[in-house]
Amino acid sequence: MSNQAARRTRSLSADKRAAILAGAKRVFLRDGFAAGSVDAVAAEAGVGKQTVYRHFGSKDALVEALVVGMCEAIDWSAPPDASSDPRATLRRELNAFVLGLSTPGSVQLYRAIIGEAGRQPEFARLFFEAGPKVIRSRVASVLCGELPDSEASEAAAILVNLALGDAYLELVLGITPPDPKRFERQIDAALELVLPSR
Amino acid sequence: MSNQAARRTRSLSADKRAAILAGAKRVFLRDGFAAGSVDAVAAEAGVGKQTVYRHFGSKDALVEALVVGMCEAIDWSAPPDASSDPRATLRRELNAFVLGLSTPGSVQLYRAIIGEAGRQPEFARLFFEAGPKVIRSRVASVLCGELPDSEASEAAAILVNLALGDAYLELVLGITPPDPKRFERQIDAALELVLPSR
DNA sequence: GTCTATATTGAGATAGAC
DNA sequence: GTCTATCTCAATATAGAC
């Protein structure tokens, strides 16, 4: 009967979809959402343009699928550790965060999100909720053991800000290349300021 | 002879030029450098499109003139004061900085600069040199009287970062509206951390 | 379901009237 | 020097072959 082809009435190739999204990532993060073209995405993905439209319907929908997918894939947290030293835990956590955010893909996504924030507030919110907000609360939860709850939230915000510090603004602006050592120094200085060792 | 018309061989109307730049500012900061059109600029400025091209030659040149002009016009510094209290001076200086950077025009310029940083590094550098870098050194020069020179530069960077804090990221992302009181609280907390009052 | 060829719109840039 | 009308090309989206 129809047991073979029954449920594949509208089945599109998952491989092609992934290839298109990969192409879209390269094109749109390099050229920007406005200047990047569907033609370029199709060429980059090695598929016909019509295939892109079959899968996503429009350029806007493709861009949205890309941004949503990248935001959902964000995971800048450090794996859990057995150590009970909160300073060491915070150092690992903050380090994983800045490294994740320093990735070329993350920097390009960050630029694109900021650049479109005035026109696409949903993208900005999605990114904020998936990234900075998560890190803040992870850091705050560690700090709750060390500081009064009333101070933990504010201290977490300070730590996260200082961990990024100047280095991140300069990285996003393309002034200086990524420098893990510089981030480590910023993190150590931040920890010393918020949780003095003596 | 030619003494009347001699030197106006290539004189264009300064009024029109200013009107075009004002229109370009509205259009490009609202729609982005890529999506904003010269037609829209001409309409916004109330001139013909050809006039735009007579004055600037190309869309790229127009965008560059706009960005350069806005960066050169940046002045987020506080006026000098007679007070000799470095904490009060720093508070005024940092407050003027965050207020200047919170202006709708500044936020939109910041977004556009970040969004194009991967493709237009010169714009990013121009902005950085005219804005953040200037504030850093102003703050550092005040701190030189309070801290060893070796620490003043780093402390200045920390102060500037904490003055912007979470509030600025959320403002740029369009998550929260501008809130001068929140900035003031961030500045006070930052000063207390870097220059404890007791 | 995927590709090639095409319709249509819009934007950058220019020619010519005044 | 400024505007109106136009050229040209690129990009979104679609139609039809396989």
Automatic annotation (TrEMBL), chains A, B:
Transmembrane segments: none
DNA-binding region(s) in UniProt: 37-56
Pfam families on file: TetR_C_7, TetR_N
SUPFAM superfamilies, per the entry: Homeodomain-like, Tetracyclin repressor-like, C-terminal domain
Coiled coil: none
Domain HTH tetR-type: 14-74
Lineage top rank: taxon: Bacteria
Keywords: DNA-binding
Keyword set includes Transport: no
The protein's name in its UniProt record: TetR/AcrR family transcriptional regulator
Organism field: Qipengyuania qiaonensis
